[in-house]
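This protein record is not my work; I was only asked to verify it. Take the sequence as given and treat only the tokens as open to question. I have pasted the whole thing underneath without changing anything:
***
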Amino acid sequence: MNFDLTDEQLMLQDTVGQAMLNECPVTHLRTIFDGDSGHDGALWETLSGLGIVGLAIPEEYGGAGLEILDLAVTAETLGYHAAPGPFLGHVLAALAIAEGGSPEQKEKWLPGLASGERIGTVALAESGGQWQPDQWQLPRGDTLTGKKEFVPFGEIADLIVVGATGGQLAVVEKDAPGISLAVVDGVDLTRRFQEVDFASTPCEWLGQGAPAERVRDVGRVLLAADAFGGSQRLLEMCVEYAKTREQFGVTIGHFQALKHQLASMALDVEPNRGLYWFAAYAQDHARDEAERIAAIARAHVADRFMQVARDAVEAHGGIGFTWECDVQIWFKRAMFDRAFMGTPAEDRERSLQLAGL
């Protein structure tokens, strides 16, 4: 039995990785990181042209009709390159509409999302770190009134999928009246946030029982995949630095203590590959286990990413703490992956509940 990725999935990763190398090398990534919006329209157009923004959208609406694992291995590659932009919120918004929208709603929104001509995002969190569908308090009605926090790229989104009381989801379009946005200062400047206020804002509700839990769980899987890719990149950066940085007349890779540290980092990283793969696979093929495994994967892989980021700073010595060192970009990405959609402690508690413990 083959437990590896398919040739098509490996080709997908290679294609996305090459596009990132061509369109967003670290020198360009730093320009975006230091810029005002965190979004590069040309890069988004390139990624859209590759079809990755519509991977999980059905073919009849212009997407690729692929599975969550295909989406996750793409997220791994984007995490490896610290790709800036609205990919995460966009694919979750598309998933919500694809699985919870009426035929008319799907026809209205999915083709534009699949092509990348329209950008989507999700508004899930409420005050006090209330990320889970059963915690949402935004009231359901003919219009929306209330506040959502930590909305990824809300400023550039053409539509927002909004979580409301009872785990319901609504879609609000960009030009709807009653929307106001405020910038939220975040540490990961490749993925920007806004706070969104709705004041009697018109919306369209997705179907009864729309898949809020599914959106949350796929989000957890994609964060785990991003964290795995980012931790891989940090490990490689440390190994390369150890081969080139000299101290006392030799490269620091000769020092036994650093060898041990790099080996420990590798042991922290590599086992997470299979964990996030299975979490993604379960979303389509083991739905009875999907929520529990998604929670475990996000909690564990995001925590390991954070630890590897700390170790990477140490491995780079004094320069590791500086803005000039590229480690800080992935360090801050690790902070995002660990905090978005709730804490690892909450994920672990939920996984224990689902296991009957």
Remarks:
- Residues 120-205 form a domain with the Butyryl-CoA Dehydrogenase, subunit A; domain 2 fold (CATH 2.40.110.10).
- The first strand starts at residue 120 and ends at 123.
- The chain has a mean pLDDT of 95.
- The chain is about 55% helix and 15% strand.
